Amino acid sequence: MDAWLTRIAARREEMVGLAAELVRIPTVNPPGAHYADCVELLAERLRRRGFAVEIRRARGAPGDSDRHPRVNLLARREGTRAGPTVHLNGHIDVVPAGEGWIVDPFAGTVRDGRLYGRGAADMKGGLAAAVVALETLVDHRPDFPGAVELSATVDEESGGFAGVAWLCREGVFAPGRVDHVIIPEPLDVDGVCIGHRGVWWAEVETLGRTAHGSMPFLGDSAILHMAAFLDRLARDLLPALDRRGTRMPVVPEAARRSTLNLNAIHGGQPETEGDGLPSPCVADRCRLVLDRRFPVEEDCQGVAGEIRALLDDLARTRPGFRYRLRELMRVDPVMVDADLPTPRAVARAVRRVLGREARLVCSPGTFDQKHIVRIAGLRDCIAYGPGRLAQAHRPDESVVVEEMVQAAAVLLLAVLDLLGAAGMHPR
């Protein structure tokens, strides 16, 4: 076996232990709990390996507060001579556990070759693989050229605005300071992810007029107006989206098109706790949250225009139809060149570790690549890590331990390649 792969395989239990420790810290977002605990765990570990460690709080960023501070870790280890900087970035936040778990979502249980827990796949397993990959490098070849960095960042699940986006604006990912970035998102151990679909979130509110529920003809139901809009989405927009293809290699195959999800809807009186019955009123408000995903052939302006056109047509043709449209988030699609150094280096490492060709893929959802490419202007940024997106955000989320080991080996070999040290052997 390759000497580097032997070194990684020897750290299998250590890697699983670190990933389990990370899972046991419930860094749930929202609200952004226990970020400092997770960052301190990683900071102490990397300091012992000679990394210069900074903990940076994103003061003033969305979500930051004294109760839930948005703290990010940046660790750097210099080599012994000039060379490029390779940066591995992972987010520490996880979505709420939700219902339906068989195992404890924050116990870090290992069973039948899998690590279970919220964030095991997305993406604490990948973060642990990245940490062990860099530790193996500095332990066995501290004379490497250039520099390596690792960041553990917050709020990716809610857009990354207090995490990677904030660090980008602070200059951390500026081209010239950093040359290559790998984000160990769960896109399978043979998948080299070069981009993601775009996202446009918006809230549509239809307006009515309240009246006594026994005489609805005296009012104007906002819920019925929303139903008319939903009908137009179902009849006009959704079939059109199904027909739109893309050149992006999005996985899974069913996501290789434009999609629309209805995240939430609420009309009428606010929901209240207790046993009381609601009062009899015609709904004067109805709100709908839209989640539109789209490939590089489309842009946010066109996506928003389609929704507004349907609403304006209803305002012209449906008596009493009034609406408000509020944009919540916009992120244009990203797809970097597969011939850039980082995707090529990772693909070579996949071939060496797994014995098969890597697959070029794009993610159906966005991840922090968007900020590094759009804000920092650094395009040599991809995702590669263990786990599968189908496991993310679900009950009994898990990652295969062997795939963590394989991913750590791929990351290590790719880092060596990008540093210009592919011929170095461990000591």
Describe the overall structure.
- By secondary structure, the chain is of the alpha/beta class.
- The protein folds into 2 domains: 3-196 and 333-418, Aminopeptidase, CATH 3.40.630; 198-331, Alpha-Beta Plaits (2-Layer Sandwich).
- The protein is built from 10 helices and 16 strands.
- The chain has helices at 3-9, 12-24, 35-48, 120-140, 164-169, 222-242, 300-317, 341-354, 369-374, 401-418; strands spanning 52-57, 71-78, 81-91, 110-111, 114-116, 145-153, 180-183, 191-196, 198-207, 259-267, 285-294, 322-331, 334-335, 359-363, 381-383, 398-400.
- A 6-stranded mixed beta sheet has the order 1-2-6-3-7-15.
- Strand 4 and strand 5 (114-116) form a beta hairpin.
- Helix 2 (12-24) packs across helix 4.
- The longest helix is centred in the first third of the chain and has 21 residues, at 120-140.
- The mean pLDDT is 96.
Q: What oligomeric assembly is this protein in?
A: single chain
Structural class: alpha/beta
CATH topology category name of the largest domain: Aminopeptidase
- Give the SSE string: HHHEEEEEHEHEEEHEEHEEHEHEEH
Helix count equals 10
Q: CATH superfamily of the largest domain, please? A: Zn peptidases
Q: Can you lay out the helices and strands and say which pair or pack?
A:
Elements: H1 3-9, H2 12-24, H3 35-48, E1 52-57, E2 71-78, E3 81-91, E4 110-111, E5 114-116, H4 120-140, E6 145-153, H5 164-169, E7 180-183, E8 191-196, E9 198-207, H6 222-242, E10 259-267, E11 285-294, H7 300-317, E12 322-331, E13 334-335, H8 341-354, E14 359-363, H9 369-374, E15 381-383, E16 398-400, H10 401-418
